[in-house]
Design brief:
Oligomer: heterohexamer
Order of helices and strands of chain D: HHHEEHHHHHHHHHEEHHH
CATH superfamily of chain D: Ammonium transporter AmtB like domains
Strand content of chain D: under 5%
Bound molecules: adenosine-5'-diphosphate
CATH topology of chain D: Ammonium transporter fold
Structural class of chain A: alpha+beta
Strand order of the largest sheet of chain D: 1-2
Number of strands of chain D: 4
Helix content of chain D: 55-70%
Shape of chain A: elongated
Distance between the termini of chain A: 9 Å
Helix content of chain A: 10-25%
Number of strands of chain A: 7
Order of helices and strands of chain A: EHEEEEHEE
Largest sheet of chain D: 2 strands, antiparallel
Number of domains of chain D: 1
Strand order of the largest sheet of chain A: 2-5-1-6
CATH architecture of chain A: 2-Layer Sandwich
Strand content of chain A: 35-45%
Shape of chain D: globular
Amino acid sequence: MKLITAVIQRNKLEPVTKALAERGVGGLTVMDVQGYGSQKGRKEVFRGKTYETTFLPKTRIDVIVPAEEAEAVIDTIVAAAKTGSIGDGKVWASPLTGLVRVRTGEHGPDAI
Amino acid sequence: MKLITAVIQRNKLEPVTKALAERGVGGLTVMDVQGYGSQKGRKEVFRGKTYETTFLPKTRIDVIVPAEEAEAVIDTIVAAAKTGSIGDGKVWASPLTGLVRVRTGEHGPDAI
Amino acid sequence: MKLITAVIQRNKLEPVTKALAERGVGGLTVMDVQGYGSQKGRKEVFRGKTYETTFLPKTRIDVIVPAEEAEAVIDTIVAAAKTGSIGDGKVWASPLTGLVRVRTGEHGPDAI
Amino acid sequence: MAEMQELADVAWILTALTVVLLMFPGLALFYGGMSGTKNVLNMFAMVMTTLGTVTIIYVLFGHGMVVGESLGGIIGNPLDYFGMVGHEEVGVDGGFAETLDLAFFTLFACITVSIIASGAMGRMKFSAWMVFSVIWATLVYFPLGHWVFGDGWLSANVNFHDYAGGTAVHMASGFGALGLAVALGPRRNLQTRPHSLPLVLLGAGILWMGWMGFNGGTAGGANYVAQYTIMTTLFAGGTGMLGFMAFEKFRDGKATVLGMCSGIIAGLVAITPAADAVDPFGALVLGFIAGAFVAWACTWKAKLGVDESLDAFAVHGVGGIVGAMFVVFFGWATYTNDEPIRGIFFGGDISLLWGELIAIGVTCIYAFGVTWIIAKVMDKTMNIRVSNEDEEDLDFKLHGQTAYDYN
Amino acid sequence: MAEMQELADVAWILTALTVVLLMFPGLALFYGGMSGTKNVLNMFAMVMTTLGTVTIIYVLFGHGMVVGESLGGIIGNPLDYFGMVGHEEVGVDGGFAETLDLAFFTLFACITVSIIASGAMGRMKFSAWMVFSVIWATLVYFPLGHWVFGDGWLSANVNFHDYAGGTAVHMASGFGALGLAVALGPRRNLQTRPHSLPLVLLGAGILWMGWMGFNGGTAGGANYVAQYTIMTTLFAGGTGMLGFMAFEKFRDGKATVLGMCSGIIAGLVAITPAADAVDPFGALVLGFIAGAFVAWACTWKAKLGVDESLDAFAVHGVGGIVGAMFVVFFGWATYTNDEPIRGIFFGGDISLLWGELIAIGVTCIYAFGVTWIIAKVMDKTMNIRVSNEDEEDLDFKLHGQTAYDYN
Amino acid sequence: MAEMQELADVAWILTALTVVLLMFPGLALFYGGMSGTKNVLNMFAMVMTTLGTVTIIYVLFGHGMVVGESLGGIIGNPLDYFGMVGHEEVGVDGGFAETLDLAFFTLFACITVSIIASGAMGRMKFSAWMVFSVIWATLVYFPLGHWVFGDGWLSANVNFHDYAGGTAVHMASGFGALGLAVALGPRRNLQTRPHSLPLVLLGAGILWMGWMGFNGGTAGGANYVAQYTIMTTLFAGGTGMLGFMAFEKFRDGKATVLGMCSGIIAGLVAITPAADAVDPFGALVLGFIAGAFVAWACTWKAKLGVDESLDAFAVHGVGGIVGAMFVVFFGWATYTNDEPIRGIFFGGDISLLWGELIAIGVTCIYAFGVTWIIAKVMDKTMNIRVSNEDEEDLDFKLHGQTAYDYN
Ligand SMILES: Nc1ncnc2c1ncn2[C@@H]1O[C@H](COP(=O)(O)OP(=O)(O)O)[C@@H](O)[C@H]1O
Ligand SMILES: Nc1ncnc2c1ncn2[C@@H]1O[C@H](COP(=O)(O)OP(=O)(O)O)[C@@H](O)[C@H]1O
Ligand SMILES: Nc1ncnc2c1ncn2[C@@H]1O[C@H](COP(=O)(O)OP(=O)(O)O)[C@@H](O)[C@H]1O
């Protein structure tokens, strides 16, 4: 099994979720994150004082998939999340050494 | 060392924390996440218009443990987090290649 | 490539970001987390009733770096995040098996 | 010297105006709470700025157009009250000054325009809104106000009952909001729910208090009618709440808090034309019916595919009609007018029905049609809708700020 | 024709009623802010819907039961004011209309019931609350109101001082909330803290303004007593705040903002029975004592194990008693009543002590007991408590919505 | 017996006081919304507690110092109104009681001190604030109030126009806030933005309503001037909003909502000294100019390096000066005073310029200087600034609570 993590634009969550569902990925976990990279933060002016935010809102998705599907899933995410503008984010894969479904106690790939 | 990650029901954070503490796990890191899986999102109706949330609130816990305790810790979490209903979540383990305690600079398992 | 994860004090985000930028680390992802460890939670009293929070606000940083820079980046973070008081947090490293930049589709270390 | 009744009247009208002023932040919070987090500020700005834009034109020529000498029943003479010049001496010896009148009527004009912001939610350029608010007030509200509140052809020739602006204020803004929403087309992303119900509740509560000033102040003083309408306004708001909740309970099994707040406003809108024309039972029943009816209107309106998401059409448009028609059929009040008011079912004359239908029809058609034309013409000339990119992040793109920062 | 004083009186009472109306969203926000995020909406709904449910019965038979002709001192004649029929002519020639009176008293009844929502926080079925509010008003408030505000046995036979409802409003609701909380049993999860102190502050601030209308309006007009009680109400709220904060500073080392807000309300509750019976110094001292005393009561009440988490018991029950007893001992006001008021320490008659103790005892015992019985009987017949599952997610389960969505 | 005008006057002043009271939570929310999440509660506590601390000293000796018999033009006799003893009989037969006067003036004193909290934002010990508020009221506000509102040397010898406290209230608090901010030094972390603009809007809206009571109540009754100033106050608030937004649009390309709210207050501050001295056009123009001018002042003030982040200096200090100077040059009102008011450009006498400059100069220099001295002396004796550690987590460290818990 692999854990695929994607940091993407906030408004791409819906299309990515949809694309994954179509590929048969049945579950994922999402969280709000703040990112920083080549893309600059933004400025808000309050009564003439400027507040700069270094970080920009992004969304992080974690999906566990069988090792053999990892490549395909990454491609799906990349395709669905791409706008072509700077700040589109990254997708990475990491190894897992175990997985359990809490409800049933199933182990390994069955638990996905 | 292993990093154990659990995505569980929100209201199971307290029992899981307690169970881990009883097992001697002395630290953990928690974050609010949104999950999606076999369990469906919920609907709220506002003046006749229905808003469906694809995602449901879950809690994610990250705990670093010595490799040998990983199995037992996973079992503890699963036992404490289980309700038997759909949506109970997953627990997985991933390998770590290093750990440092910021305060002291201690390395490896000593830093846990 | 390595994924370096740091859980630090909230008010250390700025110095750590700055220190990493100076080292040439060009991107990172941040999220608000709640931590628990040797440091105790805090109490707020409302009309004589005490509410104790087990968890304390911390910040988590994820940075992907070329494997060879991992050690140095960890040291940078530790140096910048340290206050010497309990609750300063942890930094750990995990292996990655792949990385893609969404915008360009670049793979591997080029995508960092 | 003024009469003693008039002296007390001034005290109450000063108060009425003061609480009506709070309706503006009330409405801003009511609408803003129902918006998604990304367009709270824009909603605030649309609602509040009428107090600048519309006020200026009201002082210059609006008051004349509404209550000035009628030019053939079509419109009041715009020059009649130009900046109050020549009217300032009134009241120097005590009693009403025309300045108070002007201020009170200014608020009526402003709030009517503010309500329409519902139809622009989340997709209108802010500069376009500023221009629109001024044009709309001039072409829609001032004429309608003249016909209803002034010596216009409607009040002169048609026998209808409208206590405090069910037509010129509520139906006009409700149908105006619909016209604007139709002209703008729907937002691209309709999946935003009300971001803060506490703000909605607060807004509704403030509006209710303000309505006491609105309806009670329309009585013109601390007199019998003020006391009467304060009572009916209180009662109809209370049962409007229950009516909306009952409908929801019946339809979905659960009575919601947004429904509760909407029901309050529905009841208040409905009692506005009827506040002096129903007895306590009538007020209770009218409120309940209006609440339930508006709840139902929200549902089928959602199916029309028009994105008028804050429901000014259902609440103010439909609610106003319900109130006006209730008087026609079930009116009953003995001492509030020179002659007792009796609805058709209580022995009243059926002629009121035709008059009322004309007044409603004229108001709604005029408001909807002219609003749509204004919006379309503006769109051709200056493009009133924001770009798709701006729409996703409206507050920041239009106003350079975001509503919250909890870090 | 009405007298000129009466004309001015009407202007002020219209105002008083208007600001009292804002106390409802004020109380809703005060309570809702103190609730956890998962039961904000339910709290709003409980507080606000009394304006529908209780209003209806008040118009039908409540006003008669409170101020109608006394049936043997026990209760007023429920038929006396049935929908105001036959009372509408009053005030047609100027001066007070009975409609205003009805509306003002309706609000008193509604707010008393709303306060009790404190005792139901986070665990009562909403339908049960609706039923409870109607039964409670009928069996507890209407009788108590009759005894205190009407011609009931208490006001006829017992010599006690209660300016504006320290007994029938505050002690009744405070002890009622306690009774309801005891009958319901504690919530399963007591670990929720107030989710938004800004809402609490706003609520407290609105309540303070409303209290000006409540106490000032009880004077019945724009007279000496209104001006006097407005002053004492202002002062006691201010020092109530300091008293609560001082107690906290002393106990915990830190004065909190929830304490500040609670102290304001404690001071206001305490001045309610005493507003016309203390001089400026008395108002300042009474406020401070009440604030500190209520702070202390919150602490030991927490130890009783009763989950009455919004502290209506401590604030309204105990606060009301403190105010009433203060008058007995330290009252001092020369021109507000026909005879100067003097507390026992200032030469007053000790008989007032017995009268006051009887009035307090009757109110508190009656309110607590009957409330408990109502709740228990209802529980047997319709099961008034939500299921454990619903309790965890109350707003969604009962009202189908959640309070916030900041995404 | 009181005259009939006076009876109506009482009704209006009771109302005015009631809505002025709501300005305190209004200001608390306005300031608290502009603060970062970590010092919302502290801001609330600073603003609200003046209603306790300042009230007490006002009742004891403040009212005497302001309006008591003048001791050589310097200060009123502190003993003159000690707890109102001897003044309670006034109004027993109808008409104004002195108690109402006392309560109204108490609120003036309290709100002036509350505004200064702007200068202490995020870094002052709470106990130090409590002490400071009492000392400041005594040494700065009471003397200034005496000079302007009482029989002090300024009002006796200098010909200047200040309708409702542009000097003693707004310039004094604006320059006081600046003095306090200078004495305290800047916060360590200046990177916090306003955490909730909905709270800011709500606060501004409430303040606007309260200002109707403030300016309208200063007229002393339900008379011509009250009706006149209510109108000008409405208009200046509306265009103040536009002026600030226009300046922002011009400078940054976007009109913000914080700017909108700030502009309302700027317009209101500016109209305070001028409300009876401009005609409708004048009010509209003055509001706009004040809004734009204050917007500009916020910008250059930011460059001074003084951390007075809630901008009481720019809004109240500069705004007040703009209003006062506007009257000198462009005043025009015919019936509000015994003699018509005419600004220099409309044929008025240039002597008003000198008088006005003296009044402004004295107020601003006195307020700034004495405030700075008080703060510095207090700092030497009790250390008024919080520790660096406490500054990072202010609400929790000073008040033991945090503002929100959305979990
Ligand atoms: N080295 C990194 N480690 C972790 N996250 C990163 C890294 N670089 C970028 N990111 C995340 O990816 C997001 C997009 O990166 P950015 O460099 O702005 O654009 P792009 O990926 O299009 O070049 C950032 O906001 C951040 O959340
Ligand atoms: N493939 C997956 N990858 C990552 N997280 C998942 C995955 N599947 C499920 N989850 C997480 O686990 C939660 C529970 O999963 P769900 O399928 O609804 O129930 P169950 O685990 O009981 O079968 C989800 O809400 C989601 O957060
Ligand atoms: N075993 C662990 N697994 C994951 N996170 C941990 C673990 N132990 C500590 N942490 C995180 O590190 C933070 C600081 O740890 P703590 O033990 O309080 O102090 P210190 O690291 O200085 O000894 C915690 O709040 C928690 O977020």
